[in-house]
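Record 1 of the preview.
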Amino acid sequence: MAAHWLFKSEPSVWSWTDQVAKGDQGEEWDGVRNYQARNFMRAMAVGDLGFFYHSQDQKAVVGIVEVCALAHPDSSTDDPRWDCVDIRAKTALSRPVTLAQIKANPELVDMALVKSPRLSVQPVTPEEWAEVLRMAEA
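->
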């Protein structure tokens, strides 16, 4: 079964619209300089799904992406410690799910987005995945 993840991006740097514009080829999720986030990317498989989260002003899950290339050296640095995956946009959520909504939901109190808010790449449990999708449809 595919694993689920969350990828955080500042929309002024890389937005959902930018991600969608890359089409099926996808784009490197580069620039991550946190060992835990890097290790999560190293654990990803092609076909894993992730939430695309706009940080900063919007603070909301806005879409779903798919991992389309396994971890490989990050092209934005010559430092061999840093890897990244490639992701492609799958679908926009029918309704963004805000951080405030996630924090207010008792089903999501243990979500990494709530407990480790600074982590730019993080795992999402199957239960959290289903709950955020339910909230997007509500």
